[in-house]
Q: What sequence folds into this?
């Protein structure tokens, strides 16, 4: 089995003219959940402090899925995962790029602080304390201090610019001269940073859910989330069955939200997994933050009007069940410590109280949503970023920008902003989808065509403009046909 790895490495080295032996990554055959093809895994160590080049090292998990063709293209597709805090090797994406995998290696590298690359795990929920803790949005400083005390790491050194230099070192160690970057959500920021720091090693860029340097996490979330929520209410009102089933839904929910702002709601519900009755207290901010997460995927958002209707009538069971499924899945996939290492260094220093009030004005989510998410930065060690880091990335490398029409966190306006300084780019807005456009086969085909050609010339968006969000559920029996 090690012979297979050696052959793959020899092939990779020959593509770029060869690398010195000490620069190679030792790969061996392995099994990775969600990948059915021959896969090679290894670890590549980098200095945690890349400037000092001494002291603690970070073992980066590296996974290479060799191209299916006997003769592969020299430039692989490299996934940059979302979050911040998601591990590339834990994202089940291979089936989305099947066409590209035929002729190109797929490379997955867990960014420092995620997955198996010295993860900065820190679960903000109190484990074993039931539903009440899950829906309590109070800041728990002791939880974050405990996480920090348990790390064998300097959290200040887990920022995007440092991680992108890691990636370039891995690129060289694997013997690739150029990369095709595929960024998803926060991964689009990472891809842009790599593009700025190592432009000579980038062949193409695909950005899905574009987060340009002008987007500050979580400053713009109230405004962008309100847009998505307004669209949900509008689409329900325009749908005859939804409008009939949930009359005056927006005004009823608004009245409930305003009342929750005056006093939290105390409700009794059954735990969706155990069936045990529990008492929980829901604040306005906790309720709306859960709703925000439910808007990411239109397939889940199809249940939101029904859930909101039930909540206005005092039945909170659907809300709790839906929130548990969404927030649990998102939370478990993220290394929260790495999230704060990025946000507290790269975003928080640029966010003022005035900016929060300005961007949140007129939204249901309000500025409290932003302030709650930034509270851990009070104790989190803050790294530094290069001067001009938040300036737009300027490049002429072929770049495909993808935005979901219904996206609550990176709506199409951010793709338009990124396009302004990416002179060789195309922005495609996909109707009827949210924070992941690659769920559609037409988008997968578009990306495959683009990367294969290495050019935007002649590229035509393949998705129908008639696409709409999935039909709403008006009962738990199913959606309207």
A:
């Amino acid at each position: 089995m090690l012979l297979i790895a050696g052959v793959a490495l020899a092939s990779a080295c020959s593509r770029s003219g060869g690398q010195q032996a000490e620069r190679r990554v030792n790969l061996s055959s392995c099994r990775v959940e969600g990948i059915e093809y021959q896969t090679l895994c290894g670890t590549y160590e980098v200095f945690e402090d890349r400037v000092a080049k001494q002291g603690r090292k970070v073992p980066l998990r590296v996974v290479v899925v060799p191209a299916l063709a006997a003769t592969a293209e020299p430039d692989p597709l490299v996934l940059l995962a979302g979050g911040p805090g998601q591990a590339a090797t834990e994202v089940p994406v291979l089936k989305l790029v099947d066409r590209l995998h035929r002729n190109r290696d797929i490379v997955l590298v867990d960014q420092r602080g995620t997955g198996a690359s010295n993860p900065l795990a820190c679960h903000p929920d109190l484990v074993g304390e039931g539903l009440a803790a899950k829906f309590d949005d109070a800041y728990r400083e002791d939880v974050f201090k405990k996480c920090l005390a348990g790390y064998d790491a300097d959290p200040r050194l887990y920022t995007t610019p440092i991680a992108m230099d890691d990636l370039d070192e891995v690129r060289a160690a694997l013997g690739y001269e150029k990369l095709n970057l595929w960024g998803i959500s926060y991964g689009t920021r990472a891809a842009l940073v790599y593009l700025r720091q190592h432009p000579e090693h980038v062949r193409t860029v695909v950005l899905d859910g574009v987060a340009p340097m002008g987007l500050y996490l979580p400053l713009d979330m109230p405004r962008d989330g309100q847009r998505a929520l307004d669209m949900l209410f509008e689409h329900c009102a325009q749908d005859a069955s939804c409008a009939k089933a949930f009359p005056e839904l927006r005004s009823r929910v608004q009245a409930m939200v305003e009342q929750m702002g005056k006093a939290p709601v105390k409700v009794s519900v059954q735990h969706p997994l155990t069936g045990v009755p529990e008492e929980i207290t829901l604040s306005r901010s906790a309720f709306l933050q859960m709703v925000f997460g439910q808007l990411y995927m239109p397939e889940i958002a199809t249940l939101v009007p029904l859930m909101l209707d039930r909540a206005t009538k005092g039945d909170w069971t659907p809300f709790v069940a839906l929130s548990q499924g969404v927030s649990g899945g998102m939370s478990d996939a993220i290394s929260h410590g790495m999230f704060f290492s990025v946000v507290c260094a790269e975003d928080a220093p640029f966010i003022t109280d005035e900016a929060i009030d300005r961007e949140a004005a007129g939204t249901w989510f309000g500025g409290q949503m932003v302030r709650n998410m930034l509270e851990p930065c009070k104790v989190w060690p803050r790294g530094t970023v290069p001067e001009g880091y938040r300036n737009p990335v300027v490049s002429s490398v072929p770049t495909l920008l993808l935005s979901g029409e219904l996206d609550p966190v990176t709506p199409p306006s951010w793709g338009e902003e990124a396009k302004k300084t990416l002179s060789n780019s195309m922005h495609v807005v996909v109707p009827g989808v949210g924070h992941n456009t690659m769920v559609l086969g037409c988008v997968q085909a578009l990306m495959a065509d683009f990367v294969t050609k290495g050019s935007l010339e002649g590229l035509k968006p393949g998705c129908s403009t008639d696409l709409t969000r999935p039909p709403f559920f008006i009962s738990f029996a199913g959606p309207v046909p």
Notes: Residues 221-238 form the longest helix (18 residues).
